Amino acid sequence: MQKIHAEHAEIPFATIFVAGNNETSAEAEENMPTTDTQARIAHSPIVTAFAGLLALAVAMGIGRFAFTPVLPMMLEDVGLSIAQGGLLASANYAGYLIGAISATLIRIRPAIAIRAGLMIIAITTLAMGLHFPFAGWLVMRLLAGIASAWVLISISTWSLETLAKYQRPVLSSVVFAGVGVGIAIAGLTCIALSNRGATSSQAWVTLGLLSAAATAFIWPLFYRQDESPGNNQTDIPTKHRWNAESIRLVVCYGIFGFGYIIPATFLPVMAKHALRDPALFGWSWPVFGLAAAISTLAVAPLSRYVSSRHLWIAGHVILALGVALPAVRSNPATVFVAALFVGGTFMVITLGAMQEAKRVAGRDATVLIAAMTSSFAAGQIAGPLSITYGLGRDGGFSTALLIAAALLLVGAFALSGRSASSQPAAG
Question: What are phi and psi of 424, to 5 degrees?
């Protein structure tokens, strides 16, 4: 099977254009790039970063977070309740936890994990458009969560290792901007469909088709990158030596998971409560995604002067403010400011945390990143469940949001404690 993939991967895009010009076979061969040229293109840092961006756009923007902009549509046309929405979200996060834990135990090459994960996400997203009983939707969101974790962990270790040698921080930022790009695309797609009177089922099918198309486009790139020389050190997880610093990162990343997930799951619903105009409240999610993508790119120049640890701490503080705002006063202004603050920090924190894990663990980072992702997933499960079982007390999100903001500040304080030297990140 891999030989077949390799043969397909050897066909450059230039061949398509040559065929389109009706040239003879001999002329096409003369114009075809050399093997060395093909290899340079396949293994170029720009191609690597672009492949990572699209993979995370699918895995996180759709596999993880497409449920958020579709949820208001499901509340309207399938009679889903907020409590059921919390359970569906928690099923996805439980899958994310299972995926993160399994990534520390199962040895799979990055290309295989990424490809399989993206394929599962496309299939399960399409399946959400079918009229399953509620239990069927729970299973689909669980499987999507497992696949998302595998893709994120594999992309994180693979891209950070591959791109570090180029000493260009913007490349890593481009990869992680994919999450925000995916969120924005999913949000804009749902707005367009909602304005046309589409149902939530049609929204899921559309997002599933987008996932499948993006996966097909980058499919051969991961085969090439995984076969690149010097990339074997990220093939399988290695044993990590645990210490107090590693545990601190795991705990604080779990706090981050709980802190951001409530607005990240229910922001369009919160916006709908504050904004009765459907033409406006749907924009809260694309704003969230665009803020995530732009902020990840904007901090790239800072990474030469500011350590990944300090970026993580600053992100916690700003995120805490964004989480608390709608709890203090719920109106259109605070909801959109929250979208900017939460969206503008959650990928910066993710990028900073992954770089910090790489700094602390070196080439053993796969296991530490997987453990941090597991802790993050556990925090995410607790967030929606706190809404599901606490919503009846005040009919809103205020209590859970304030608790989340307080925990984020505790996490920032813990990260600011004495630790090993943290240098500005590279790659």
Answer: -55, 140
